[in-house]
Amino acid sequence: MTTPLWKHARTGKSLLLAAMMAFSGAAAAADSDTLKVGTTAAFSPPLETAADEARKQGLKVEIIEFSDWIAPNVSLENGDIDVNLFQHRPFLANANQEGGFHLVAYAPAIINQVGLYSKKHASIADLPEGAKVAIPNDPINGGRGLLLLQKAGLITLTPGVGIKATTADIVTNPKHIDIIEVEAVQLARTLDEVDLAVGYPHYLRLSGVIDPNKALLFDGLEHPEYVIQFVVRDGHQNDPRLKQFVSIYQHSPVVRAKLDSFYGKLYQPGWNP
Questions:
Q1: Three-point CA angle 50, 113, 180, nearest 5°
Q2: Which of 1, 125, 158, 262 is deepest in the core (most CB within 10 A)?
Q3: Residues facing residue 182 across a β-bridge
Q4: CA–CA separation, 187 and 204 (whole Å)
Q5: What's this model's pTM, rounded to 2 decimal places?
């Protein structure tokens, strides 16, 4: 008995659909083996090097770059990525509190210098009365910026306020500087418009607007709370892929060479060698 052509077509479609579903399932299974690492442009190049080294050891790693400091934690909380690298512990604690996240620091990465930069003035003393000064607009890094302005002698803050300082904590402001709060990743772009800006050397290097080594003042590398952390969802700390990838990042000579070339002298490892 001859099978009608429409049945052949129907069978063919069914087989094609089944094949597509099987391929999709296989792709999903393969994708589930891939460690997804979220980050920002300031940390991506050394992570890409670590990912290349991981692939040589049979570990598949995908680096996903975000353009802000909110999405990496949202994506991690939602399970879209496995780990992120862009924040220090104070920022993480604030994000958990504000966003209701369940994220924990997994392992240390690096600590970076943060500085005060200007394209208009050669020293802090040259700043005019009413100078426009840009700082980060998030609660934690904004506090770090205010502490740096205090270190520069431009303001004084409420004693003991620490990294949670806000502009409301300014006690004295002898030059009446005008403090402008800007998203941290956009600070480099303000340097043509303001007299002084808090700057993150890695973002300045990427933007090309100023030599990141030529800050008027650095905040120093002596604050361990500012070490950038690998961060995961609570309960996922035992993922063997994480352990392998972090070990590569921290101990591979190839990755260390990339860290040195990318950050220069403006960073230190946050782990014990």
A1: 120
A2: 262
A3: 136
A4: 9
A5: 0.81
